[in-house]
Specification:
The structure holds 2 protein chains of 2 kinds.
Chain A lengths: L4 E3 L2 E4 L5 E6 L6 E7 L6 E7 L2 E4 L8 E4 L6 E5 L8 E8 L4 E3 L3 E5 L1
Parallel strand pairs in A: 2-11
Antiparallel strand pairs in A: 1-3, 3-8, 4-5, 4-9, 5-6, 7-8, 9-10, 9-11
Chain B lengths: L3 E2 L4 E5 L4 E3 L2 E2 L6 E8 L6 E7 L7 E2 L2 E6 L4 E6 L8 E12 L4 E7 L3 E6 L1
The chains are: A mainly beta, B mainly beta.
Chain lengths: 111, 120
């Protein structure tokens, strides 16, 4: 069956621009997580959705970051006024129980 | 304060030998979950094993077992009969969940990882 997909796989943008990263979870998975992984580090928790609502958004670094999941399936992570420090791989994971299934990630490069 | 500590930045193991990857965690919650993930150089994150804080038996999945010592707050991963394909980064992670009036959270925190190299 289809796994978690993320688009785009790579995104290069200029400092100050707005970007949207998309995550398509496994069908039927109610839980969805966003993480950010910088080179040589472990994934950093950003936000967790249970259904349509954000159950925990405490990991979002500042108000330039926002995520939505309007129908409880696809989620979009939105970053305003991008900065060079936002460059990282953004990972999405979905789960039904304890095991999280990760997508391949979106590599964001801010020039 | 570090929630998840992995003290071994890099480890080497001979093929077919067993290896233990260390993980200690910090939480005041009674209910939590512990995970191990493998990340090869390709970048994909692969779930290996899960242990709930109330599980009395150590979790096992094939060649992977989790040595859970609750009082010491440690959750070490043991890989038996190492294979060349086991060479990768390994991450320990903890899920903390609290549902309460005024305060609630549900997050997964990852450690910094251990790089494992299997030598032929």
């Amino acid at each position: 069956g289809a796994g978690v997909s993320q688009t785009p796989s790579n995104k290069v943008t200029e400092k100050g621009k707005y970007v949207e990263l998309r995550c398509d979870p496994i069908s039927g998975h109610t839980a969805l997580y966003w993480y950010r992984q910088s080179l040589g580090q472990g994934p950093e928790f950003l936000i967790y959705f249970q259904g349509t609502g954000a159950a925990d958004d405490s990991g979002l670094p500042n108000d330039r970051f926002f995520a939505v999941r309007p129908e409880g399936s696809v989620s979009t992570l939105k970053i305003q006024r991008t900065e060079r420090g936002d460059s990282a791989v953004y990972l999405c994971a979905s789960s039904l129980t304890n095991e999280q299934f990760f997508g391949p990630g979106t590599r964001l490069t801010v020039l | 304060a570090q929630k998840i500590t992995q003290t071994q930045p890099g480890m080497f193991v001979q093929e077919k030998e067993a290896v233990t990857l260390d993980c200690t965690y910090d939480t005041s919650d009674q209910s939590y979950g512990l995970f191990w993930y493998k990340q090869p150089s390709s970048g994909e994150m692969i779930f290996l094993i899960y242990q709930g804080s109330y599980d009395e038996q150590n979790a096992t999945e094939g060649r992977y077992s989790l040595n859970f010592q609750k009082a010491r707050k440690s959750a070490n991963l043991v890989i038996s009969a190492s294979q060349l394909g086991d060479s990768a980064m390994y991450f320990c992670a903890m899920r903390e969940v609290l549902s309460g009036v005024g305060t609630s959270y549900d997050k997964v925190i990852f450690g910094p990882g251990t790089s494992l190299s299997v030598i032929p």
